[in-house]
Amino acid sequence: MTGNEPDATEELETALDEQAEAVADEVPEIDEGRYLYCIVRTEAETGESTLETTGVDGEPVSVVVADGIGAVVHPCEGIYDTADLAQVRRWLVRHQTVVDEAGAAFGTPIPFQFDTILRGDDERVREWLREESETLERALSELAGHWEYRVEVVETEPVPDEALIEDDDRLRELDTRIDDSEEGTAFLLEKKFDQRLAELRAARRESLTADLQDRLAERAREVHALERSPTASLDDAVVDEGDARAGTGGSGDGGAGTGDGDTLCRLTLLAHEDAEEAIGSVLDDVAATDGLEVRFTGPWPPYTFAPELGGGEDRNGGNRSTNPGPSP
After folding, report:
1. Radius of gyration of the chain (CA)
2. Contacts for 163 with CB less than 8 Å, ≥ 6 apart
3. Cβ contact 284:212 at 8 Å
4. DSSP assignment letter at 320
5. Domain limits, the chain
6. Which of 26-40, 114-128, 234-248 is modeled with the greatest confidence?
7. pTM for this model (two decimals)
8. What is the pLDDT of residues 245-282, one digit of tens each?
9. Could you give the CA distance from residue 131 to residue 125 in angstroms, rounded to a whole number?
10. Given the DSSP bridges, would you call strands 110-119 and 321-322 parallel, antiparallel or unpaired?
11. DSSP element (H, E) containing 49
12. CA distances from 309 to 19, 37, 38, 80, 326 (A)
C-alpha cells in the first residue's frame, strides 16, 4: 500500500472554470468581516487567543471564543477571488494548514469550506457562536476523536481478457462463434464479446468496492463512495491539494503513488483515530492482491462529515459563503 501525491491541477482547473462565471458578476462587498477556518472546543469560556500560524495571504489567525466554543478566524475585507490557479492553490494549502494546526491544538475541528466569511467583527463571531451553540455542541461531541480518511484502489495491471474468457461460459461461446463466423456476423459477435467483457469488468469493480466498503464499515463510523474521477469541487480540492502538499499515508509504507492504472473506487471514511491501524490492515489485504495498489491518506479534518455551516441568502458560488447564520 502506498501514500500518494495526486495532481490536483485538472480538478482545480475544472472547478475554477465552473465557478468563475458564477462569481464574476456579483462579488459581495464586505466592509469588515472574519474569514472562518473551523470551529473547535476550547478550555476557555470566552475571550480570544492566537494560533501560532499564519492564514491565507499571511494573515494573523486568532481563536474567538464564546461559551467554550472557538472560531478560528482572521480579519478580512472581501472574498478571495482570482483567476490565478497557482494563487488559488496557495490559498487552499494555507486554509488546510490552519485547520490542521487547529486540530492538533484543540482536537477534531469542524472545518468550513474555503472562502467562508462572516460579516462583522469578533463580537459578531461570538454572537453567531451563541446563536449556533446547540448545533455546534452536538457536532463537536459527535465528531470528537474522529477524522476523515481517503482511500483509492487502483488497478495497475488489469486482469487479462484470457482469464475472463476462461472463467465465463458466455465469453467462451462468443469467442468460438467469432472464429467460425463470416466477416459480417463476426463483427456483430465481436460487439457482443466486447460488451460482455465490459460488463464483467464493471461487475468485478462493483464487487470489490462493495466488499471493501463492508469490511471498512466494521471499523469506521461511516463509509461513502466518491466518484471514481475526482469531482470538480473546491471542497475536495482542499483535501486533495493537502494530499499533494503532504503526500501522507495513514498507514502502510508511505511514498508516492505511481499515477498509473485505472481507479476502481474512491472512498471517504469517518473513523475514530484509534481505528486507523485496523483500517490500514484491511487495506493491506487489498494491496496484497496482484495488480492492485491502495492509496490511503489522512487523517484529515472531517470535511465530508461535518454539518453544513454558513451559506444562506448571501452564498456566492459553490464554495464561497458570506455571513453564515442570520444577518447581523
Report:
1. 24
2. none
3. no
4. B
5. 10-144+309-322, 148-300
6. 114-128
7. 0.73
8. 443 343 333 333 445 678 999 999 999 999 999 999 99
9. 10
10. parallel
11. strand 46-54
12. 20, 11, 10, 19, 12
